[in-house]
């Protein structure tokens, strides 16, 4: 995924990705399930300096299944989850792929935290990891 634009449901927060995403994943951890209101979260890892944000996201400090801190950034008006900053990946902004204006080019390279995956989700041929890869 190169360059893209997106934003929250109400339009109060917009962003532009200025470069190449370093990673594209599906996270199945229980915290992403609760935060997204779904079975998983689709995310793009982009160096923070390559994302220009207009508007001021609200932040909720979480502790992920790894025990490390996760800042979850969202629109304080409409509640749309937009980004995450994860202690284990400093300098990286995890963009919620569903907030892209055009998410059709999103293709996950991996499924992570599959030990929390819902039993009805099929990861197919995409590599899957019980926790974080590596």
Automatic annotation (TrEMBL):
<dbReference type="InterPro" id="IPR006913">
    <property type="entry name" value="CENP-V/GFA"/>
</dbReference>
<keyword id="KW-0456">Lyase</keyword>
<keyword id="KW-0479">Metal-binding</keyword>
<keyword id="KW-0862">Zinc</keyword>
<comment type="similarity">
    <text>Belongs to the Gfa family.</text>
</comment>
<dbReference type="InterPro" id="IPR011057">
    <property type="entry name" value="Mss4-like_sf"/>
</dbReference>
<dbReference type="Pfam" id="PF04828">
    <property type="entry name" value="GFA"/>
</dbReference>
<feature type="domain" description="CENP-V/GFA">
    <location>
        <begin position="4"/>
        <end position="114"/>
    </location>
</feature>
<protein>
    <submittedName>
        <fullName>GFA family protein</fullName>
    </submittedName>
</protein>
